[in-house]
Amino acid sequence: MDYYAPTALDDALDLLAPQPLDVVAGGTDFFPALPVGGAKHSLLDVTRIEGLRGISQDRGQDRGQDRGCVRIGAATRWSDIVHADLPACFDGLKQAARQVGSLQIQNAGTIAGNICNASPAADGVPPLLTLDAQVELTSKRGVRTLPLGRFLTGVRQTLRAGDELVTAILVPPMPAQACAAFDKLGSRSYLVISITMTAAVIGCDAEGRIDFARVAVGACSAVAQRLPALEADLLGRRPADIAVSREHLAPLSPITDVRGSAEFRLDVVAEQCLRTLHKAGQADG
Ligand SMILES: Cc1cc2nc3c(=O)[nH]c(=O)nc-3n(C[C@H](O)[C@H](O)[C@H](O)COP(=O)(O)OP(=O)(O)OC[C@H]3O[C@@H](n4cnc5c(N)ncnc54)[C@H](O)[C@@H]3O)c2cc1C
Fold it and tell me: How far from the centroid of its chain's Cα atoms is residue 30's Cα?
């Protein structure tokens, strides 16, 4: 078994094109999940590739927009996100970052690793869904971007082809007044797999009525889901006047497991949506 740690993206793609390799970043999902006997393929470590770590602002003028996308490099660690200077609509992602595992996990685990691992309980996914995040995939064949909700197709399943690397997460411009929040229910505060988690981004007009709403729930379906009916019902309301019904939760299909029953998860998540929306609403000026 070989271990490759290229420093140039082109070299990484050259290695990946002709042979199956196990891509590894922080290794915090990959190594604990290794079967007895170890990895099947040689390893491609992406953490030393120049330009893959860090957060930058694309120049919107190139695309005729006032503001460009926020570009989060694939190998950006959760602790990088916690400490980044980002607009308020990223507060949900930051709150999620602070709750991924522990400080040690946040210092090693990356944003791309979290989404590529495609766990239903990946804490990064709901806040990224509320930010309309796109996944940038790069191979020798070129670059393509997919909405995160399309990239994730099931438990541990994504649309990443074997010769592709995730190179960045792109967040399009959000309304300037948008504020965000994240809430995670676990059996304790840290180092715990989420039972349910909810993320929200909302914006309010000059009268304090919601004019922009994104809500997403994780750990209640194979892939975290946005709640479009709830988002539509929120428009025109004040954050204090929100109600969440079972109909709003229709996209969810929770399972019963050791962490909680399906019914418990649905009860919890209705309340969790309310709390997350109130938290985002309080953050709004
Ligand atoms: C003790 C512990 C606690 C944890 N707690 C949490 C938690 O609270 N919440 C949570 O969501 N997660 C948690 N995790 C899981 C994990 O830390 C995160 O999902 C983390 O973000 C994974 O990132 P990584 O860089 O370590 O991924 P890796 O383990 O390196 O990779 C994970 C997967 O992504 C693929 N991959 C990585 N980078 C790329 C890329 N650029 N292109 C293509 N494929 C790629 C790998 O091939 C692999 O399949 C925990 C893990 C541990 C060990």
Answer: 18
